[in-house]
Amino acid sequence: MSDSSDDESQTASGPVENAWEMKIPEFKPEDNPHGLLEESSFATLFPQYREQYLRQVWPLVQKTLNEHHIKAELDVVEGSMTVRTTRKTWDPYIIIKARDMIKLMSRSVPFEQAKRVLNDDIGCDIIKIGKITRNKEKFVKRRQRLIGPNGCTLKSIELLTNCYVLVQGQTVSALGPYKGLQQVRKIVEDTMKNVHPIYNIKALMIKKELAKDPKLKNENWDRFLPKFVNKNISKRKQPKKKKEKKPYTPFPPPQTESKIDKELASGEYFLNKEQKRQKKQKEKNEKHAAAAKKREEKRNEAFIPPSEEPSTSKKSSNVNTKVDIASLKEKIMKARKGAKMFNKPVK
């Protein structure tokens, strides 16, 4: 007996290759015969649409928690669920597990799944995704990408991580083994940071296959895993009128001409008021005359007859048809003879 106990102590104190495969020793009532010194309680609020479901399920919740000597209360007026320890409670961590259970239930996780948190090897993680992306449209698209068409992406994540995952509002509730919860959190956070979940799902599948091969046990697996290349393609709005970049010159641009400079160049500056008025009037009259001419031309367009071109079919028929003069003479002679026969007087 002593040899076996020494071996156990050596294995426990020595280095462990895979910590996830270690079996957690079960905590029994004999390990804590005196119970708890103080009463602990936790409360959580739930949305109004969950009230009807919680009313139906609450007797089952109380029954499940009573097995662990935890008291559960449902306050419909306040909209809260409360769990607290009793004098018979012997497990100090079970109140934390009960708190996680009511948190999950308030976030639309069904009772059949939420009660699994009370097991020692099962944990839960509530991932807040609301503040990762500020743009609402991007947030909705990425959240939908996490769910996938008909929920197939979410189902594949559940199968690979052995976790129950529920996307609800601005949170993702995960429930399962602790190693799976880490993987779920990584997938969810990467997806909300615009990394498609297929990369992480593919990596998990490859790791699962590589773990079966004992030869690759101590080797680096990076060469087998898919590498995500982040392409930051910013589609900036282009201006409608693009300014062409002029060649660089060290000299400043020439000064724009003022009104007086333009008048001096045209000679208008030296004219008196009457001459300026006459010039302006002349320009106006020229403009009016040009506009009137344009209007007249537009009106006369309706009275111009269209050019008649002979049709190509008639031309072709005239060219192709040849008159046979001999046959035409015979026809005329016959017609004349027939006319003479009819015109003879009757005796």
Give an account of the 3D structure.
By secondary structure, the protein is mainly alpha-helical. 46% of the residues lie in helices and 10% in strands. It has helices at residues 2-13, 51-66, 94-106, 111-114, 136-147, 152-161, 178-192, 197-211, 259-266, 273-300, 312-320, 325-343, and strands at residues 41-45, 70-75, 80-85, 123-128, 164-168, 171-176. The strands form two sheets. A three-stranded antiparallel β-sheet has the order 1-3-2, covered by helices on one side. A three-stranded antiparallel β-sheet has the order 4-6-5, sandwiched between helices. It is elongated, with a radius of gyration of 48 Å. The model is unreliable at 1-11 and 313-317 (pLDDT under 50).
The percentage helix is 40-55%
| Number of separate helices | 12
Can you write the helix and strand succession as a string?
A: HEHEEHHEHHEEHHHHHH
Overall spatial form: elongated
From the N-terminal CA to the C-terminal CA, the straight-line distance is 166 Å
Structural class: mainly alpha
- Radius of gyration, taken over Cα atoms and rounded to an integer in Å: 48 Å
Strand content: 5-15%
Largest sheet: 3 strands, antiparallel
Number of strands: 6
Mean pLDDT over the full residue set? 84
Low-confidence stretches: 1-11, 313-317
In spatial order, strands of the major sheet run 1-3-2
Short description:
By secondary structure, the chain is mainly alpha-helical. The protein has helices at 2-13, 51-66, 94-106, 111-114, 136-147, 152-161, 178-192, 197-211, 259-266, 273-300, 312-320, 325-343; strands at residues 41-45, 70-75, 80-85, 123-128, 164-168, 171-176.
